[in-house]
Amino acid sequence: MIVLKLNSMMNSMDELKKQLEHLGLSDKESKVYLAALELGPTPVQDISHKAHVNRATTYVMIESLSARGLMSTFQKGVWSAKDMAVF
Known about the structure:
Blueprint: H1 2-22, H2 27-39, E1 42-43, H3 44-51, H4 55-67, E2 71-75, E3 78-81
Antiparallel strand pairs: 1-3, 2-3
């Protein structure tokens, strides 16, 4: 039962990632955005780890997502993804 739930969650995340890419986000932007959305307000290091994207690249992706209005600083050093309703 747990395996089925995990597979379902992974499929849902993969589907969300594909939809974000269809809307114009890159692979890494999608990974960073979804990681930030799942984690809530968190430092870049945690987003980077969750997204499996190196930290330097994560900073670049966050800047790009911020320019699109999809992420913002929560407090100094802590970033937050905007709700998907933004799309």
